[in-house]
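A note from the maintainers: we've had questions about how concatenated examples are separated. There is no special marker in the raw files; a new sequence line simply starts the next protein. For clarity in this README we add a label.
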Amino acid sequence: MLAACASLGPQLPMAPEDDVPSQGLSFPVRTLGPDGEFELLPSSLIARRLEAQLADRPLSILALSGGGASGAFGAGAVVGLTRSGSRPEFSVVTGVSAGALIAPFAFLGPTWDPEMAAIYTEEIDASLLQPRLIGAVFGSSMYSGTPLKKLIDRYADDRMIEAVATEAARGRLLLVATTDFATGEPVVWDLGSIALYGGHDAGRLFRSVLLASASVPGIFPPVIIRVRTESGWREETHVDGGVTLPFFIAPAPEDLPQFAGAGAQPTVVRVIIDGRLRDFPRAAKANALSIFRRSVSAGLSRMTRTTLEQTMAATRGRGISLDYAAIPVAYPLPGAFDFDPEAQRALFTYASVCAESGRLWTRVQQKSSDAAGERRVVPAGTTCPADDQFIGRLAVVPSGGLERVGWSAPKP
C-alpha cells in the first residue's frame, strides 16, 4: 500500500517537446541576453566570443566535478593552489553538483577563499541531511532540501552576484550544469550572464541553478526553475548535473583554439575530480540501501574515468595542455553522503597540502621536454594525487608517446 501511494503525486513541470534542443557531443550553453530571454548558444560561438574578448590573455579552464561530501577535496585543492602561488585567473570555470557550489568561489579568485574554506571546515555537517520521515515515502526525496538551500542562500548573496557580473563583463565564463528531469539531458547555464542581465531576479535564478545542480535525485527534492525564452515563460524541473555529466569542458575541446607555435600561449585545461577514478573491492551488506550505494559508486567512478579518457583524446594533438587530479584509492574516503565535520576538514586539508606542495596534478602532454612545475616537500607518509600509480597510468598512451609529469613512486 505504501509503495502504491508513493507512486502518486503532482506532475512535475516539463518543457514542451518542440522546445527541447537536440544535443550532440558538444553541449550548447543556455545564456541570458540583455533582453531577459535565454538562448542556446553553440559551443563554437562561445569559443569565438571567448577568444575575441580575452585578446592576448591566456585561455585557462578549470572543470570541477561532482562528488557529494567529497567536494571538500576540490575546495581544498583550489585554496592550496592559491597558497602555492600557482593559481591562475581562470578564463572559464565549470562545475557540476558539489563542483557547482565551489565554482563561483574558484571563479572569483583568492579573496573568496576564506568563505569557501568556511563552508567545508565549519558549515557543512550531518545537519545538511534532514530526514523527511514519512515524507520520504510520499514526497519527492528522502531528505529535506531546506538546509542545502539555506547554505546556498547565505553564501550566494548579492555581493557574490555583483562580483560575478563584474567578471562576466570582462569576458570570463562561469558555467554550471544541471539535468533536465523531463528530457534526461544536461543543461549548461551561463551564471555570469544571469548575474549580468538577470536584474532583480538574478539572485533567485542564480541560487536556483546552484541548488538544482547539487540536488541528487531521491536524496534532495528536484528544483523547479522558471525561465523565459523566445517562446515565452515556462517551468522546468531540474536535478543534479552529475546524473548526466561527471564534469564538462566548455567550450568543447574541439572548439578551443589550437597552440599557434613559438611565442603563443597554449590553452590549459585543468580538471579536479571530487572522487576516485576507480573503486576497490569491499564488502556490501545484503540490504537495498547498501546495494544501491555500492552500485551508484561503481557506476559514477566508471563514468568519470570514461569522460576523462574522452577529454584526453579530444585535447590530444591540438596543443592543449591537460592537467587532472582525483582522490587516490589510498585515501580513507568516507561515503558520498557522510558529512561528518572531522572528515570534511581532513579531506579539505589533505587536498590543500598536496596542492600547495605541487603534488596535485597529473599532466597529459605531447612533448617529453615539457617540464613539470616546481616540486616541493610533502609530509612524510602522504600519498598525494600525483603519487598515485593508477591515476598517473591513465595519462600514459604508449602509441602517442604521452607520459606522466611529476610522478614518483608512493612511499611505502
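[label: protein 2]
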Amino acid sequence: MSFAAFMSQLLEIVIAIGLAPLLTGWVNLWRAWLQNRTAPSLWQPYRMLHKLFNKESMVADHASRLFRVTPYVMFGCMVLACAIIPTLSTDLPLAPAADAIALVGLFALARVFISLAAMDVGTAFGTMGARREMLIGFLAEPALLMVLFSASLISQSTSLTTIVETLTQRELAIYPGMAFAGVAFTMVSLAENARVPVDNPATHLELTMIHEALILEYSGRHLALIEWAASLKLFAYSCIGLALSFPWGVAQAQAPLQMLLALPVLAAKLAVGGFLLAALETASAKMRIFRVPEFLATAFLLAVIGMLVHLLLNQ
C-alpha cells in the first residue's frame, strides 16, 4: 500500500467521523424550522458528545463484558462501513471489501450486539427495545439486500465501487428499476436509522421508543460512542443513497487532493439530502409498531419489482 493510498483512506475515515454529527445537527436544525420551533445549534451534537465524554460511565453491577464492549463494537462497525462506502473516491485500499453482503453484515453485527447488550442488564425497556430492533432488522436487511442487488444488475457486480464507477461512466439515463429501488431504500433508511414514521429519535415514551429503549442504561463515554455510531450510520446510509442515485462527483484516484475537491460536492449533496429527510419526517406521522412489518414488506416488494423491471427491460 502506497503512502498516498493510505492517506486517502485515512482522509475518508476522518471526514466521515467528523461530518457525521454535523449531518445529524443539520437534519435536526431543518426539522425544527419546518415544525416552527426554535432550532438547536448546528453544533449541538458535538457539544453533546463533548459533555458525555467528560461524564462518568455508570454500569450496572451485574452487567457483563458484552455490555461494556458493545459501544466500541458499534462504533467500529459504523466506521468500517463508512470506510468501504465510496463517498469521496472509488479507488481506495478498502474498496475490494465494499461488497453489498459484507456491508449489510456490518449493520447486522452492530444490531446483534446492541440488542444483546440491551437484554444483558435485564430491564423491561431494554428487552422490549431489543425485540423491536430485531423485528425491524429481520425485515429491513432483506429489503436492503434487494435494493443493492437491483443496482448490481447494472454493473453485474455487488461491489459498491464497481456500481458507482459503472454509473458514472455511462451516459445520463433514467433506470425505472432504480426508481423502485430508490423508494424502497428510502423506506429502509428511515427504519434503520430510527426516523419517523418508524421511530422518533426525540421521544422517550415507553410504548413507542425503539432506539432509545436500547440505550437507556448507557451513560458517559459509552453513550457518546453509541450516539456517534448512530450519526455514522445515518451518514453511511446517506452516502449509500447518494452513491446509487447521484454518483457523480466522486473521485476515481488515490489522490488526497482530488478527494478534497470532491468534498464540497459531497457536502452539497448531504445538505440537500438532510433537508429532504427533515421535510419527509415533518410531513409524516409516527405509525404504530404493528404497522412496521407492512411498511418494510412494502419496501421489500418495491425492491423486488425494481429487479424484475430491470430484467424485463433488458430482455
